[in-house]
Design goal:
heterotrimer; A mainly alpha (493); B mainly alpha (140); C mainly alpha (110); A: 493 residues; mainly alpha; two-stranded antiparallel ribbon; 21 helices; 78% helix; globular; B: 140 residues; 5 helices; 68% helix; 9% strand
């Protein structure tokens, strides 16, 4: 029992509710919500350290022992993601201070951001599959509200699509949970894993696992990403950054958890399907990334490519590939937030959304230009930035298991990522400066600070790969040996 | 918009209290049998919605000068607060406590912290339902 | 009894699919609400329909309390989602002046 585990979810919920009372005091709202995220960063670092010493920790809500009660389980994988999401949330929050309109701030903007992060962290930590559904819904409900902040026509149109797609996918999730409960008679993830391991993964269970795959593929944008570019390109910049960085990653996390803990017995069926879908996602995402000129659309398709890339690691499922996926997942959370923030800043300072209408930006905004270049390099996987190690490990895993098609697709997609972003860099930052300094909206301090935090994050993650690898190896080991997780849940508290 | 509907008004005044009683009954019945904060709150909210429909919104807001958004917020705070309350006593998050007390008039009665949680849920439901109604009808 | 409720769930899914595919926004939202209720019926069926006593405190053969908890939670979530989407539809109607989905299409250059 360690009540700290619940804090990454409970603190934002509590603060989100308290902020409802502080509606007129915008300054207080800002500092309190930032305080929560900074506290969460501290808590997750401490818990990571604790897990390293004592192994996986769990917390039974209300003292109900598993498998009867709901519980939170913190292993290195969840805690690393909670840490990354807290850092990204803090950076996006700092960006919000100087970019969102005062009317948003008075209309509970910060409360919804806090609830969104609560849902994300809850999904990472929960040890109960129905609770996972509930946390997904908390996250999605807040995102339904956040996507419409601004109330423009395009936003409303895209948010209707987004809401309907997610309601239908939540329905499939609910049906999948019902089938699973009917088959194994429990909802505790460790208990399900235990029972499946005991009885063997029957064909019925494999079918159910594919239903789960459909749900998470919809949420993560694995092949079923048709809704993603539209809805991620309409919200205000900090919200788009949080969506791009976190929401799809929750789907990916759920897929990793379900297919490494519960349904790992029929890999030639489930993991093959994941592999095929990941390959198709890489192809589709790459085509999209080079097809559009709208900066936000390019960024959104880059999210799609990353989803495919990370899931190549899950499809291959060798130790190196899983480790690489975890590494790349954390890298991608940070770098996608940075990419969306930079794209949003470019649009904010010039007032244009298409790359060929922006030119010569580097003259007036040198820092912005070089940050964008850094992002490009990091996404392409140039050492010593953070994308490198993840790509190498996933590649190593793919070679080790002989999945050369996936390997080729993954690395060709990296070239497309590099091309799509270099194109923006060359057309928008170089060339003749068409907007004079007086006509431009100056970049605000908060924008620079938040993007610099994330840029430092990607450099630190790249250079600090050695000290980080202890935690990542532990996370990969827990994923590959479900027994560690099951023992932690059913062992003495 | 004022509709002078005598029958509806007379009935609503009477039925309002019947619905309130049912809401309170459902709320307390929820401890061991069907009912509880959510359904009790919904019935309570339906009583308020009836008032808003029968009489016009301005009159009711004059009579009940409460910001229902804050009602919902307070309810949510109460519910989450009971979860945090367990931390103060060094228990697991969301642990509930109960005990039997001998109260005058009621006799022996079971008092639990779940009731506070459920009261929070009921307040959230009332606040949210009325807020939805008001926000859709306000800007005409 | 199980067969009957399963057929009912199937009918609800059919109705919901029909509504989801219509062009009217309000119909789509009602469709999502009905869809959720079909899922609730499925949860009820898969865990077995039977008459039993109250779990934990009751005597005799108890019913499984978990599906009820799941359904209640899901109803609350469905309530919230429907409320949000209705307000969203209303705002869209105010902003765009239509609730027909095909008239909501964006400009080609957007």
């Amino acid at each position: 029992m360690n009540n700290l585990i619940v804090m990454p979810m409970a603190l934002p919920v509590l603060m989100g509710i308290i902020l409802l009372f502080l509606r007129p005091y915008v300054k207080v709202q800002r500092s309190l919500s930032l305080l929560v995220f900074v506290a969460n960063i501290g808590i997750s670092v401490y818990l990571l350290h604790l897990i390293q010493q004592n192994g996986v920790i769990r917390l039974d809500f209300g003292g109900w022992e598993p498998p009867f009660g709901i519980l939170f389980v913190a292993d290195s994988f969840s805690m690393l993601l909670v840490l990354a999401s807290s850092i990204v949330a803090a950076a996006c929050l700092i960006y919000s201070f100087s970019s969102v309109e005062p009317s948003f701030e008075k209309n509970f903007y910060y409360s919804f951001v806090l609830l969104l992060i609560a849902g994300v962290n809850g999904s990472f930590l929960t040890g109960d599959i129905f609770n996972l559904f509930v946390c997904f819904e908390i996250m999605l409900l807040s995102s339904y509200v956040l996507i419409t902040f601004g109330g423009k026509k395009g936003q409303l149109r895209e948010s209707i699509k987004y809401v309907i797609v997610n309601v239908v996918s939540s329905w499939i999730f609910l049906v999948a949970i019902a089938y699973l409960y009917g088959t194994v008679g429990t909802l505790n993830m460790a208990h399900i894993a235990d029972r499946i391991a005991e009885s063997g993964q029957t064909p019925t269970l494999t079918v159910i696992s594919v239903v789960f795959l459909t749900v998470f593929a919809l949420k993560a944008g694995l092949f079923l990403y048709f809704w993603l570019p539209g809805s991620y390109s309409v919200p205000v910049t900090p919200v788009a950054a949080m969506f791009g960085a976190l929401l799809t990653k929750v789907g990916i996390y759920a897929m990793f958890r379900v297919f490494t803990l519960m349904f790992y017995h029929e890999q030639q069926i489930t993991h093959t399907i994941i592999g095929i879908l990941a390959g198709l996602t890489l192809i589709g995402g790459s085509i999209g990334a080079v097809a559009y000129k709208d900066l936000r659309m390019v960024a959104a398709y880059n999210v799609v490519i990353a989803v495919g890339f990370i899931l190549v690691g899950l499809a291959v499922a060798t130790p190196a590939a899983i480790e690489g996926s975890i590494y790349y997942l954390i890298h991608d959370i940070i770098i996608k937030a940075l990419l969306f923030l930079l794209a949003g800043t470019m649009i904010a300072v010039t007032g244009q959304t298409k790359m060929d209408e922006i030119s010569g930006l580097i003259k007036n905004h040198p820092l912005l230009g070089w940050l964008f270049f850094l992002t490009t390099l990091s996404l392409a996987g140039i050492p010593p930035l953070s994308g490198f190690i993840g790509k190498v490990l996933i590649g190593e895993g793919a070679v080790g298991s002989g999945s050369y098609v996936l390997l080729a697709l993954a690395f060709i997609s990296s070239i497309f990522v590099l091309y799509s972003l270099m194109r923006i860099f060359l057309t928008s930052f170089w060339g003749e400066t068409i907007i004079s300094k007086d006509e431009e909206i100056p970049a605000k301090k908060g924008w620079i600070v938040s993007t610099c935090i994330l840029a430092l994050g990607t450099i630190a993650l790249g250079l600090g790969a050695e000290p980080m690898s202890v935690y990542i190896q532990d996370a990969a080991e827990t994923l590959l040996n479900p027994q560690i997780y099951i023992d932690a849940v059913f062992g003495d508290n | 918009m004022k509709i002078n509907n005598v029958i509806l008004r007379t009935v609503a005044k009477l039925v309002f209290f019947i619905i309130l009683t049912l809401a309170v009954y459902l709320f307390f019945a929820g401890h061991n049998s069907p009912g509880g904060g959510f359904s009790g709150g919904l019935v309570l909210a339906s009583a308020l919605v009836l008032l808003f429909i029968v009489f016009d919104i301005e009159t009711i807001q004059k009579g009940i000068p409460i910001d229902f958004k804050l009602v919902a917020a307070f309810g949510a705070f109460l519910s989450v607060g009971t979860g945090f309350g367990a931390l103060v006593f060094g228990e697991n998050f969301l642990t509930q406590a109960f005990d039997y007390f001998n109260l005058p008039f009621f006799g022996e009665i079971e008092l639990t912290t779940v009731t506070i949680f459920e009261a929070g849920v009921a307040l959230v439901v009332v606040g949210v339902v009325v807020t939805i109604l008001l926000s859709i009808s306000e800007d005409e | 009894m199980e067969t009957l409720v399963t057929i009912l769930a199937g009918v609800l899914v059919t109705v919901a699919t029909y509504l989801l595919l219509s062009k009217n926004l309000i119909r789509v939202i009602i469709g999502t609400a009905i869809l959720t209720h079909a899922a609730h019926l499925i949860i009820m069926v898969v865990s077995g329909l039977k008459t039993g006593s109250v779990p934990i405190v009751g005597e005799g053969d108890p019913v499984d309390p978990l599906p009820q908890a799941l359904i209640l939670t899901s109803i609350v979530i469905g309530f919230a989602v429907t409320a949000v989407s209705l307000v969203l539809a209303y705002r869209t109607y105010q902003e765009v002046g239509t609730d027909k989905l095909d008239e909501l299409r964006g400009d080609p250059d957007e």
